[in-house]
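task queued by scheduler; priority normal; single chain, no ligands, no partner chains; default sampling; output format set to structure tokens
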Amino acid sequence: MKKTKLLVLASSTKHLGRCIAGREWLGGTADHPQLGEWIRPQGEETQGAILHPKFRLYRDVGGSRITRYGRPVEPGDLVEIDLEDQDSEDSQGSQDFQCENRKMKSGSWINLVRQIHLTEPLLEQMEEDPAGLWLPSRATGIKSDRVPVTQLSEHSTPRQSLFCIQPENLQFHGLDDEVRAKFRFENQDYCLKITVPDFNPGEFDQSDLANCRLVISLGTPFRPEGADEDYHFKLVAAVLCPSIVMTG
């Protein structure tokens, strides 16, 4: 049975589990990979979260036997995953706006193939250049870290809900017991929540920030306390640098 190979670019927190995402690995070498579309494997739990121990890596040994590899999956891991067929009814699940979603087959595990160093040339190849990070807020009172569900649906389903970008003027700031990334992209200022597990901004210096790429994910609908409508929040699912890859 053929498994999907995935170069993992994000492993972020989601409902006490992980949200894992990456680009399909079609072949090539670590320096010159052939990469396909974004894929966000979906677990069987709340809104597709992959819970412990399913987000930890395993290795195939002797065919059907598997042994525990131990650590959580992280950016730079080349993995194999059994996913539902793309044209099956259960392939994407209920989150139609997240067109990258693919359900993991029942009983499947994430198997490590090898680790790939995320070099500057490789990260440069990963960069995408969208016109913006989804829609700008329609009202001045709505922050740039979210977009109303109704507004997004009015403009039809987005082309994708994951981007790897190189931001301008990147800074990290603590705010209300969480860390946010402040940056500029396509003439728009953003201040987005970072969902990388155990993120430590102290491990970066200014030269690191100049070369960082961010994986931005459009989250599932959520209604903040006191709000009168649901929003899709724009989240920093990974902070990728040639010298540092923040992991779980």
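post-processing summary
- The chain has a mean pLDDT of 86.
- The two ends are 30 Å apart (CA to CA).
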